[in-house]
Design brief:
This protein is mainly alpha-helical. The chain has 2 domains: 100 residues, no CATH class; 288 residues, ABC transporter involved in vitamin B12 uptake, BtuC.
């Protein structure tokens, strides 16, 4: 008889047979469990309250509670997720197989519904979790949009915080002027109840203004690349920031506040999903292939009848639009916007997310945005040391994975949602 397989190998093999539907079901079960027994369990294992970010914040503030926080995370998250996912693998594979026979919108809607339900229950524990989750989804939008330019087209643009600022201020001016009584613009022009219905239009307006601003970067890109384009795009960022600081109409350097509370979790989640879907389709389209050709060799692309000018303009405008939408959401999540927010530090964070996750990859952008956002929040108790640990981590990634963690990998919906084994239990 052959020797028995190691337990770790057997466990990995069983996990590989669990479809995405099973993991989402396990995650939903875990967060529902935390909702009902999280507080008594935290007290039972010696924690003062439910950990905000998987216990990492408690570990950094009070190292003596590291075993308690790890035990809580294992009992609330790891064990329930693994137990539900593995025990229901046969059932979820059957369900996934049945869903894949329907129009693609049906399985996508089911998976997104489970994902949103899990995120909703997780964020409902505290306002802090909700804020972190919304900012993380906005970071995903920014990272994806910047990856269109810096990854898929091979340019190096530093103008994204400027696009974000244009979208943030445009959406803020519209919503405050239309729905808020105050000192800025006087009496509101429309009742506040209409705000949620018109808010998508406000975000689109912010995105369009950002796209218009992108022309001032896209046109010079016809003759410049590399360091020169980086300087031009950085100058654009400083110009936008300086204009806002000297524009009293939007309160200048004091910042603009009072935005109505229109960016709830369902709104931000819906826009993030729409952004991922549209950018994934964009980079897989004919224009996306043209961007790759421009990245690899612009002269050869022109020789192969690729309209490089049109490709650059479309890419810059498309990426800037989504950066503007993300800026509008950002302003309404915080309900305050300041020109100092859209500076060099914001640029460094977005660039870190892009290059940490991986160039030319929708998966990589999502992983990079989530990793850097959550890591930054988890390391917040370390204060200044946070900005030592994160750069060191980036240096290690650049040394051992120069293209990022997950590079050159697009989002294949059919592959992601398909069952991992057939009706007979075989893969």
């Amino acid at each position: 008889m052959p020797p028995p397989a190691p337990i770790s190998r057997t466990f990995r093999a069983r996990c590989s047979r669990v479809p995405l539907l099973g993991w989402l079901s396990g995650a939903l079960a875990a967060v529902v469990l935390e909702r009902f027994v999280g507080t008594p369990l935290a007290l039972a294992v010696g924690l003062p309250k439910i950990p905000a970010l998987f216990g990492i914040d408690i570990m950094l503030k009070k190292p003596l509670l590291i075993p308690n926080a790890v035990l809580y995370t294992v009992l609330i998250y790891l064990l329930p997720i693994a137990a539900v996912a593995l025990s229901t693998a046969f059932l979820t594979n059957r369900l996934a197989g049945g869903l894949m026979k329907l129009p693609v919108a049906v399985p996508v809607a089911v998976h997104l519904g489970l994902l949103y339900a899990a995120l909703h229950f997780w964020a409902d524990v505290s306002d802090y979790r909700s804020l972190v989750l919304k900012l993380t989804m906005i970071a995903i939008m920014l990272t994806l949009s910047l990856n269109v330019i810096n990854g898929y087209m091979g340019e190096f643009s530093c103008s994204h915080p400027g696009f974000m600022a244009l979208g943030a201020y445009c959406a803020s001016v519209v919503t405050v002027g239309l729905f808020v009584d105050g000192n800025y613009f006087g009496i509101a022009l429309l009742p506040g109840e209409t705000g949620p219905f018109l808010f998508p239009i406000d975000l689109v307006a912010g995105g369009l203004l950002a796209a218009f601003g992108a022309l001032f970067v896209a046109i010079p890109s016809f003759r410049t690349r590399g360091d020169y384009l980086a300087i031009i795009s950085l100058a654009f960022l400083f110009i936008v920031k300086s204009l806002i600081e000297n524009f009293e109409f939007v309160r200048g350097p004091r910042g603009m506040s009072g935005q109505p509370d229109l960016a709830g979790l369902p709104t931000v989640f819906s826009w993030a999903v729409l952004c991922v879907w549209s950018i994934n389709n964009f980079v897989r389209s004919t224009v996306g292939k043209a961007m790759n050709a421009v990245r690899d060799n612009e002269m050869a692309a022109e020789a192969m009848t690729v309209d490089t000018r049109r490709t650059k303009i479309v890419a810059f405008l498309f990426a800037a639009f989504w950066a503007g939408v993300a800026g509008g959401l950002f302003a309404h999540v915080l309900r305050y916007v300041n020109p100092g927010t859209f500076g060099i530090q914001n640029l460094a964070e977005v660039l870190a997310m892009v290059y940490f996750g991986g160039l030319n990859s929708v998966y990589g952008s999502i992983v990079g945005a989530v990793s850097i956002s959550l890591l930054g929040e988890a390391l917040r108790p370390l204060e200044i040391f946070k900005w030592i640990i994160i750069p060191l981590l980036l240096i290690l990634v650049m040394i051992y994975r120069p293209t990022g963690l997950i590079a050159f990998k697009d989002l294949e919906v059919a592959t992601l949602l398909r069952p991992k084994q057939g009706p007979d239990g075989e893969r």
